[in-house]
């Protein structure tokens, strides 16, 4: 909340019980989270039976669930360092043998960012956040259209 000059002058002229309280001014700032949803994905990220929806925003990934009444409940809203170019879901494949038991049966989230990296992410229920499994450098950092890593396509076979 910002204080206008009129409010400041009325505060200064108002009598107060202590002289030190009349010289104090407070300023409150708030930073807004990104609200524009650029990608929407459906996946089984928390467990093989969960029905999760991922909202990909410019600088954050939001994991939500939709209850029986159609209400959207946020499970996790995680900011990321950089700008997300594209998101995709890598579905669980029975032929694939995971080295990590915590990813068994769960889908993976694949992300491309302006850093030029392809990242495979899994959701950790205990920490309530996304964790990277691996990063692959595809191109130099930046948002140049000619470089690989601009758009993402996943083949689950």
TrEMBL record:
Biased composition, class Low complexity, residue ranges: 10-22
Pfam families found in the cross-reference section: Beta-prop_RSE1_1st
Coiled-coil regions listed in the entry: none
InterPro entries: Beta-prop_RSE1/DDB1/CPSF1_1st (IPR018846), RSE1/DDB1/CFT1 (IPR050358), WD40/YVTN_repeat-like_dom_sf (IPR015943)
Residues covered by region (Disordered): 1-22
Domain RSE1/DDB1/CPSF1 first beta-propeller: 37-156
Source superkingdom: Eukaryota
Protein name: RSE1/DDB1/CPSF1 first beta-propeller domain-containing protein
């Amino acid at each position: 909340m910002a204080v206008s000059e009129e409010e400041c002058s009325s505060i200064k002229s108002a009598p107060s019980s202590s002289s030190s309280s009349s010289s104090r001014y407070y300023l409150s700032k708030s930073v807004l989270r990104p609200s524009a949803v650029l990608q929407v994905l459906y996946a089984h990220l928390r467990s093989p039976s969960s029905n999760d929806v991922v909202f990909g925003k410019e600088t954050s990934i939001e994991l939500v669930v939709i209850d029986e009444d159609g209400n959207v409940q946020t499970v996790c809203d995680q900011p990321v360092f950089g700008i997300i170019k594209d998101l995709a879901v890598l579905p669980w494949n029975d032929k694939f043998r995971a080295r990590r038991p915590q990813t068994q049966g769960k889908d993976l989230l694949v992300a491309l960012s302006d850093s030029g990296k392809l990242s495979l992410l899994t959701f950790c229920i205990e920490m309530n956040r996304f964790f990277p499994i691996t990063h692959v450098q595809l191109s130099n950092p930046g948002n140049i259209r000619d470089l690989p890593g601009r758009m993402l396509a996943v083949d689950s076979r």
